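Reopening this ticket.

The earlier resolution said the output was attached, but the attachment link was broken on my side. Pasting everything inline this time so it's all in one place.
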Amino acid sequence: MRDPTLPAVHPTAGIFQPPYLWVTVGTCALVFLAAFESLAVTTIMPVVSRELNGGSLYALAFAGPLATGVIGMVGAGNWSDRRGPAKPLYASVALFVLGLLIAGTSVSMPMLVGGRLVQGLGGGALTVALYVLVARFFPGPLHPRIFAAFSAAWVIPSLVGPFAAGVVAQVFSWHWVFLGVVVLVIPALVMIVPVLRGLDEPDGDSQPDETKLPEDAGQTTHTATPWALDRLGWAALAALAVLGLNLSADARIPGFPPATALLALAAVVIALVAVRPLVPSGTLAARRGLPSVILARGLASASFFGAEVYLPYLLIDQYAFPPTLAGLTLTGGALAWAGAAAVQGRLGSRLPHRGAVQAGSLMVLAAVLLALATSALHWPAAIAIAGWVLAGGGWACSTRG
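Inline output:
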């Protein structure tokens, strides 16, 4: 139920007009900062791992936040259904900031990874809480506009974030890439606090029951959504399996060399078992329709982002690129993504979804193979960079609506 103290809803108003202006700015700022931090860390992590002597934990610094983010998303969704988005949003921002503080003050790679795990938990929850906030506060006709603004808040950091992070790391310190975001998160949250005060009840709560007797008038019936402990448990198990998969690379049992492969295989099996209840039925079997689309998008995104986190490492470690120049490589992929998305928007139905997904997936695969060949055969760095521009366009196609 909407708090009567909140501004009246005006479906014809724009998202940058009262009463939506500050909520739009605040929510978009939170999305922008989360996106900037994600892309910035990709640029500076080679420098961080070298300074902290943590190359063995490089992959975990990226996989860890993704794993805990699943827990955050499931937990925040369930919590928002029970009590509205206010408390989940406060909690997610607090966790996100705490993780940034731990990472930004880290003196060892394990400490930084721990901060990233906390940060991922908060970041995953933040995304869900913001979407629930949009559903509760903005009228239906404005939903496409605010979601378009969220998309823009992701595109802009992809264009400027990697280069800006490289500049900060070179001129000041990589620590400020984390700590600088903390300074900006708090004002963004303050902008939407007045609205959150009226969104602390689940949908459909506090509705009067017309069948009550007169003496019961004024009372309300509360039917809060129960905690989905099973989904939270599966999400936690999936996260642990992903963490175990990354740590298994360093597992060594004397006298038993196959231990690493067996531990990795067990982690993969556990992860698949845990993910199955969290996705639509038939997803892992690539069933025709929505399940196969989700699987294809997941595989394409995993390939794209998995290669992206290692591209700056390759350029900085093997080709002695400065962080700023390595960051510009990621910007090239982002520009290709934006361009491909714009072309698809203009073509509309003239470009079949199936053809776009197939072509995009092949482009991403080709880019990953080019990066792999560049690393293994010591080809010129320009080949991997050109391949990544190809990957950006391919990813836009492979994740087409």
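Reporter confirms the inline version is readable. The longest helix spans residues 21-51. Residues 1-6, 204-222 have pLDDT under 50 and may be disordered.
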